[in-house]
Amino acid sequence: MTRLGGPSVVVVEDADELGRVGADLVADELRRTPGAWVSVATGETPMGMYAELAARRRSGLLDTGGLTPVQLDEYLGLEPDDRRTFFGWMRRSFLEPLGIADERVVRLPLDGDLAAACAAFDRTLDARGGLDLAILGIGTNGHLGFNEPPVDPGAPTREVGLSTATIDANARYWGDVNDVPTRAVTTGMRQLLAARAIVMVVSGPTKREIVHRALEEPVTPQVPASFLQETGAAVTVIVDREAWGEGDPS
Ligand code: GLP
Prior knowledge:
By secondary structure, the chain is an alpha/beta fold. The protein has eight helices and nine strands. It binds 2-amino-2-deoxy-6-O-phosphono-alpha-D-glucopyranose (GLP).
């Protein structure tokens, strides 16, 4: 389903189909650009897609040898071996299954002069022409990565405070709201919106209201994902029936 001049919306019936359709898009991108730089979301929604990509690689259908993963977001204040780091989640779900060494990841800074290090991260991406692909989820409040609302579409990579909505939503990952760190770093909106291609995956009834606000209502800093309506990137949103509801995208 395609809307001219805006995101293409693909409604899928279930998690399996979401994984297959998402893997098709990512695999196509890696064939087109073998040395692609790809921003990699954690969160629950892309897990089936990563498992499908790993299965294709095992069957010799996918080559990840040239892929450079770029970290999308990360909590602050955790030890490197803490079970809650997004890097650890990325390693378990994406790097190891796809045969990619940790050292190949363009990582977000976690300490020291964060403002300077985040600016250096942006310069590294700018110097090679930005992201080829951003794989994104969406927060229940419309955030991309940890770009919390209200957000400027030109926002750089930076340190952020997490909203109550995000802390509540992230509690399901770690057991309790008190287990969710309150500060994070995120790849900035500017880099994400400048990616050549964007694949956003959306699943489940808790995302229904926000996905419609992001795609069908006016663009607003209050819904960071609504800026996907305005980017020059090729945006594909894969959304399951539970999140989309009845009917087809117009
Ligand atoms: C989290 C992360 C995002 C993720 C989003 C959706 O807070 N910051 O990177 O894409 O929220 O996660 P999920 O797919 O688990 O719903």
